[in-house]
Amino acid sequence: MGIAGFFLWLQRWYGDCVDYVPQDVVDAAFKGHALPQSYTSAYSYDNFYVDMNGLIHPCCHDTAPLPEPETEEEMFERMFGQLDLLVRVVRPKKCLVLCIDGVAPRSKMNQQRSRRFRAADERLESDAISNACADLIVAELRLPRPRVRERWDHNVITPSTAFMERVALALEWFIMKKLNEDAEWRHLTVIFSDAHVPGEGEHKIMQYIRGLRSQPGYDSETTHVIHGMDADLICLGLSTHEKHVCILRNQLTDTFQPDHNRFCYFNLRTYREKLMKDFGNIAGMEFERVVDDFIFLCFFVGNDFLPHVPLVSIKTRGIEMLLDHYVRDFALHGYLTQLGEVDYAHLRTFLGNFVAKCMPKLTCEYYGVLRAKERAKQHVEERVTKTESLVPELLATLRPDGSNAQDVSDALLGLLSSVRKERARLVVDTQPLGFSYLDQSYRDAYYHHKFGWDPVMNRVAFENQICLCCAEYLRGMQWVMRYYTKGCPSWEWYFPYHYAPLLQDLAAFAATVDVEMRMSAPLHPVEQLLAVLPRLSVHALPEELHGAVNDPTSVLGKFYPSVVDVDFSEANFSYQGVLRIPFINCEALSTACRGLVELEEDFGSTFLYCHRSSRLAAQLDALTGPGNRALPLATGLAPSVAPIPVSIASKTPIAGRVGRYEAEWLRGEELRCPDPGIAKATGYGGAIKENHVNQYRYELNTQADYRPVLLGGEKRGRGAAAEKAKRPTAKTPSGKPGKDSSGAGPAATTERRPSRNDGRRQKKRARLLLQQLIAGGGQGATEEAAQKQHHAASHAPSSEQQSMHEGNTHHGGRSSPPDSKDTSSRARAKEKEKEGRDAAKREERKSVKVSIDVSSQRHSQRPHGGEE
């Protein structure tokens, strides 16, 4: 979910970053035809990453242009078809990475728990409306009772349910089927991480990319495409600090549902260029640090782990004001983050100035939003009234003999139910317009209503509670920043309140924030299932746990209330209300699940698949050993896996460790679909006559450091180097190499990184040539020498390039230290160079005035007594 309305905001302000996939391309991909040349030449990518939950959810709902599927097999058919379509549209050249959400951090579980409780209430409400409409049709219209279809519980899209086990097995079969039988897949390395592996899908993808970047020899020109519908993918993509990243999304319909057949790219390279212009007024800007600060500021507008700060939202133009203030007052507050860590002193200065200057504007915008909410409700009423007017038209289609009575009755049920459900979504706003966010009375009322703290009974305790809330919220901001840039910093931490503190209190908080967090371990999948599912979804739990949920006197009984308290005070629609349900207790969870957890496996493995005809298959077989040795699924019981050497990782986009695994898909054998339902009801159920796909157990590199730099100066592939060489190096007024369009630093013009001594050698050659030409006499020779000298000096690496190389040599370990022979030879070279300079100076004093540009800065040489 991420930031509500963020992508629509980006479309409005940065529309030229959005590239819509032409419909003829999608149609050709859907039919299996060749794509237009104009598209394939413009859009070419190495790696394709799919956040599978963003694909699974729409395939299980009624999304355009398809109705709601009636069976799980129909859902699987849609998943297969959508994934196949995406791969045909993107056409990845190297790697396909598929990640399903596993056990989430505790801070995310609270949001998942709230959503699933809300979904259960909506399902009850929907069933009640459908039954009421059916009774109305029978009683008043004298039609047969319409068929009320039992609603499928979407809460089963949760790790460790029987449905997600089927999803994992179905997708594994689909991968084997495509790699064996589809020539367009055969070159791909496929990595599949299912719900048995802890972590959210999009963050598994980020972990994979960070692992790639940490490999020696990583090609910085690698192109990445990430598919997903969550708005926070934009910020996650920026956090990679990669040059070539695109986000692929399904376009939205008029009702804001994803369309299965329409796609668009959001180009983060273009967006980075736009951000560079937006922040261009910052003197001495370190652009990659500014990108990190931009990501951090977006957290104030919304994220999945903390409740959003009151008043600051997309609708109140909060993000625009935050960014404008950041640029305007940068000299006062400086950078807000460094290497993924929050600088709280700078943040305090930033928030203090922001509250003083921008709160009145935010308040005005908020009141405008309230008025817009009322207008939006009027539009909904108009739409509902228009839908109701279709009832007479539908009744007019009833035949005199009543042969279509059942069909008319079913259609009427859908129409009337939609009307009532639309009205049920509307809520009455209880927030009085007279309150001001700048008044002390509103501050007291806010904390009293939202948190239950009484300012009258004990003012000291009231203020202390606010301080504790602010400290935990600011600590949470650090947790989120680390999560986005480095991976999960703590599986057990969560924000223990349903609401955020007011912005002015965050700005006024002056105490030290404790940012130390215990890493701990993720909850067991069964524990997480019990933590997030409501009582109405108890059927998705193991039978041994039904009693713990249904019995109000059990240790978990109080965490499953029969009536849920919902706060609609800031909501437009019912689904936007805040559910005030108790936070689950982990100790109670462990007690309830103790016996069952001991019997079940903890976590599963990520798997890597490649066709046996590929070079990678031979390399991994040589690495992991011969034979059909099967490894157990449980990570804790598996034999050790071998690190992937640089010789393999530099050619194939994989990083981490790999081990042999053939327990399910034996090589060279006939394979049959393990799910009878899929085999019978889908077009992908046919047997594989002979398996030509190798499967390996794969572990991501979890120790990759956060590198907030653009790796544009590192070694590139041959094609990328040729493309870069075609573009002229940008020059600053001083003649030094300028920054490329992405703000990475000095623009590289060759494939080889400049050596520290390159500049010295070229300067020496130029001086010796100058001496020879001067000794030969003639003004023409002097001018020619000056031109050649200037050419050599302008192509020598600048001091910035040399210092960057020195830093990389020291930290990266890419260059070995010089031995004693090298040192002595350099000393002799320096002596000869000094002698050459002295001779050149003597000749210059006798004959000619020459302007020499050696270090990209002009120094005029005078006829007498001038020095370089």
UniProtKB/TrEMBL annotation:
GO cellular component, one term: nucleus
Molecular function (Gene Ontology), one example: 5'-3' RNA exonuclease activity
Keyword terms, alphabetized: Exonuclease, Hydrolase, Nuclease, Signal
Biased composition (Basic and acidic residues): 716-726, 750-760, 819-847
One Pfam assignment: XRN_M
Superkingdom of the organism of origin: Eukaryota
Domain Xrn1 N-terminal, residue spans: 1-251
Record's signal peptide: 1-15
GO biological process: nuclear-transcribed mRNA catabolic process
Coiled-coil regions, chain positions: none
PANTHER family assigned: 5'-3' EXORIBONUCLEASE 1, 5'->3' EXORIBONUCLEASE
Family: Belongs to the 5'-3' exonuclease family.
Protein name in the entry: 5'-3' exoribonuclease D
